[in-house]
Design a protein that fits this description.
The complex is a heterodimer of chains A (about 300) and B (about 250).
Chain A (H helix, E strand, L loop, with lengths): L2 H20 L9 E8 L22 H14 L3 E5 L8 H6 L2 H9 L4 E2 L9 H8 L6 E2 L4 E2 L12 E6 L2 E8 L9 H4 L3 E2 L2 H15 L4 E6 L14 H7 L5 E3 L11 E4 L5 E5 L7 E10 L10 E3 L1
Parallel strand pairs in A: 1-2, 2-3, 3-4, 7-9, 9-10, 10-12
Antiparallel strand pairs in A: 1-13, 5-8, 6-7, 11-12
Chain B lengths: L4 E3 L3 H6 L6 E11 L8 H18 L2 E5 L13 H22 L5 E3 L12 E4 H7 L5 E8 H14 L5 E2 L1 E5 L5 E6 L2 E2 L5 E7 H4 L13 E8 H11 L2 E2 L7 E3 L3
Parallel strand pairs in B: 3-13, 4-11, 8-14
Antiparallel strand pairs in B: 3-5, 4-7, 6-11, 6-12, 8-9, 9-10
Helix pairs in contact in B: 3-7, 4-7
The chains are: A alpha/beta (about 300), B alpha/beta (about 250).
Chain lengths: ~300, ~250
């Protein structure tokens, strides 16, 4: 069904490559910068930790995060703000308001998309669905099939954004729910193999959507050292191609800086995760170019 | 913050591809700490304020008084705070269970690690319940064969921790063998099945309580442990839990 469309697009792409070859001099426009900001596992931590806190004194706080993000956006309006799930659960804000305040505040901070973590099912599918009107951002999840649930059509597999002419594709992945979440909470949600879905999504976003930048927003977890078969961001990064960035969650991993991984075709992928509770904000800047900058030594990654 | 410069060669790919504006030539990544050096945005802060005040008002309204401070480390095999928690689960969950099934809970087993804070002398509020039980764990009832009740006793004897119990009595000798056990003051019949109230963490094998895997039936009460505590605090004037003889070890 999609075959003709696909061929047409392939032809168009080839033509573009041809043109590019002729008009090299015309690529002298200024480089473009896309900033990706991200959080994960904020777990209803709206207020900062107090000065007395044993572990994270004076850390976090959404009102501070708002200031930080505002400053970054003022510097570069071509910014996306993403969350990798487990927005819910962890402070009485969730117990009292069921996630309403979390979604309202994220909307005020202008989040662009989020994926769904296991704790986002803590009030059941109905509990998540009931809070959706408060979220002015979209949920992306490619490997949860919600067809037979109340969440049907309320989480898209992926979403694309165009910022300053750069097309960005963001797809979501969630962790296996059986054994982690009470079946009564996720009901008929079907978990699909994230490896196959990620391979499929990257192809769709690259070939069909023609994205310049592809991001996987994942709640799979950073890495499972004692269970290498369990899908994780590191294992998926190695098994896939055409994905530029994995933004992860679930394992509450505080990475000092993003990890660089070689994908299935030996290209570099960034994998990042910022712990939990809004203590850190991930910031990845992609510079698009201007042939003068694309020198023979390739892409420079500074982390 | 330290920046490491890593140059990576994508030789072939780059030399063949067109240098369209869609080529990434540089990536910078870092994780920025959010702390008190950043000013809170006033509009966000004022939006949160009424929610916070409403929660605090409710959390801090006084429900009961504790005559002393109780900690889960005050005691060897049973503690006042653990006994309180297990007794509360029995008292609050049994009527719910009975209404639903027509049967009664035989005894309660929780985990020592599930008590997340002390009870401080003085006013008891909903916040106390949130501190003791910050997780959403809820009460479930296992229909457990006697053989596994035996395993449960052996587990407790071996663990030698003050895992909270209610309606169950265990006496260990100095070598930690079970020398006496009873449920609701009656001897245990290991050929019978028993209804044991616990939490959803333990029923799934948490803390190595594998005997629960043999449950013939698991009845979910949709009742959070925290809510059982709050319900109990609301109808209790004074908290005065004690360490008793429900789980002890003989000296000789």
């Amino acid at each position: 069904m999609k075959r003709r469309e696909f061929i047409q697009q392939t032809t168009a792409a080839t033509a573009l490559v041809g043109l590019g070859g002729f008009g090299l001099q015309s690529f002298s426009s200024a480089p473009k910068k896309i900033t990706i900001l991200h959080t994960n596992d904020v777990h209803s931590h709206i207020d900062p930790f107090g000065p007395e806190d044993g572990r994270n004194p004076n850390q976090g706080g959404i009102a501070r995060r708002a200031t930080l993000i505002e400053g970054i956006r003022a510097e570069n309006p071509n910014t996306l703000l993403l969350d990798a799930g487990d927005i819910f659960q962890g402070t009485p804000y969730f117990n009292y308001y069921g996630g309403e305040l979390e979604f309202k505040l994220m909307s005020m901070l202008k989040y662009d998309a989020a994926t769904i973590g296991n704790h986002d099912f803590d009030n059941g599918l109905e509990g998540l669905y009931a809070q959706l009107p408060h979220a002015k951002f979209d949920f992306v999840s490619a490997n949860y099939d919600f067809s037979n649930t109340i969440m049907d059509t309320h989480a898209k597999p992926y979403k694309t954004f165009v910022k300053n002419g750069i097309k960005i594709g963001v797809f979501g992945l969630g962790i296996e729910l059986a054994g982690l979440v009470d079946k009564n909470m996720y009901k008929e949600t079907v978990y699909l193999n994230p490896v196959e879905i990620a391979q499929d999504m990257s192809r769709v976003l690259k070939e069909y959507e023609k994205c310049d930048l592809i991001i996987c927003l994942s709640h799979l977890g950073y890495n499972y050292r004692n269970n290498e078969d369990k899908p994780s961001d590191l294992s998926l990064a190695k098994l896939t191609k055409d994905i530029d960035l994995f933004i992860g969650g679930h394992t509450h991993t505080f990475l000092p800086q993003p990890t660089i991984v070689k994908n299935s075709v030996d290209q570099n992928v960034l994998v990042n995760q910022v712990g939990c509770y809004g203590i850190n904000l991930g910031k990845i800047d992609f510079y698009f170019g201007n042939n003068k900058n694309t020198s023979a030594e390739g892409v420079s990654i500074l982390v | 913050m330290k920046f490491k410069n890593i140059f990576l060669v994508l030789g072939l790919l780059l030399s063949f591809s067109c240098k369209t504006p869609s080529d990434v030539y540089k990536i910078e990544g870092k994780n920025v700490n959010v702390n008190d050096s950043i000013q809170a945005k006033p509009s966000i802060e004022s939006f949160i304020k009424p929610y916070r005040e409403n929660i605090n008002k409710d959390l801090d309204s006084i429900l009961a008084y504790a005559v002393d401070t109780y900690s889960k480390s005050d005691g060897h095999l049973n503690t006042a705070i653990g006994n309180l928690m297990a007794d509360v689960v029995y008292d609050e969950a049994d009527p719910v269970f009975f209404k639903r099934t027509g049967a009664h809970i035989d005894f309660v087993l929780l985990n020592h690690g599930g008590i997340r804070s002390i009870i401080s002398k003085g006013p008891i509020t909903k916040r106390t319940a949130f501190e003791m039980m910050p997780f959403e764990n809820s009460i479930v009832v296992s229909k457990l064969p006697g053989a596994q009740v035996k395993e449960l006793l052996d587990y407790l004897a071996k663990a030698k921790r003050a895992h909270p119990i209610s309606q169950l009595k265990i006496v260990l000798d100095k070598d930690a063998n079970v020398v006496e056990s009873s449920i609701k003051k009656l001897p245990i019949d290991f050929n019978k099945t028993y209804y044991i109230a616990t939490n959803d963490y333990l029923i799934n094998g948490g803390d190595g309580m594998d005997f629960f895997k043999a449950s013939e039936e698991v009845i979910v009460l949709d009742y959070k442990i925290r809510n059982a505590l709050i319900d109990y605090f609301m109808k209790t004037d004074t908290l005065n839990p004690v360490m008793d003889d429900r789980f002890i070890q003989l000296k000789d």
